[in-house]
């Protein structure tokens, strides 16, 4: 939704399981939901397009995980949709700058929390019980982070990406990293 020029309000909602029946509510079954809300303001100044944003994402404790672990919303050990996994939330504030030289820079800082029942730890394990628990569950890992990312496309089929994070966790300590990736693809055209 764009109430005024340059200002956007957006959101996403995932309903994995909705508790409808009274007997399930009486048994303490919660809904399995995820949502994201985002405020962004964009403009162009001196050939640079920029966006300033604030967003919050929450993925419920039982969202993405099911009674049969083979039905969990994961692929190749990674959750579908968001890298947070389940039993997690994250807020972040940042800015993104797009240059005319095919370069995109993003700076953001925020805090991520994840509970003991996150799907990131055991992606194909089913939930053991489906009852309402505090969010996030158990011992909560909190990571405060500052993220910097630069993506450059020297050609339409080549992307060079440099990403760096300074992060601190209350349980695991240092979450700093530096990542360099180069992606290239060669389009092939064929006829049958």
Uncertain residue ranges: none
The rough form would be described as globular
Helix content: under 10%
| Mean pLDDT across residues | 87
Main sheet overview? 9 strands, antiparallel
Tell me what portion of residues adopts beta-strand conformation: over 45%
Q: Radius of gyration from the CA trace?
A: 20 Å
- Report the total helices: 1
Q: Strand pairing plus helix content: what structural class?
A: mainly beta
General description of the model:
This protein has 192 residues and is mainly β. 3% of the residues lie in helices and 53% in strands. The chain contains one helix and eleven strands, in the order βαββββββββββ. It has one helix spanning 22-26, and strands at residues 7-17, 32-45, 48-59, 74-75, 78-79, 88-98, 103-114, 141-155, 158-169, 173-174, 177-184. The strands form two sheets. Strands 1, 2, 3, 6, 7, 8, 9, 10 and 11 form a nine-stranded antiparallel sheet that branches. It has a two-stranded antiparallel ribbon with strand order 4-5. The longest helix is centred in the N-terminal third of the chain and has 5 residues, at 22-26.
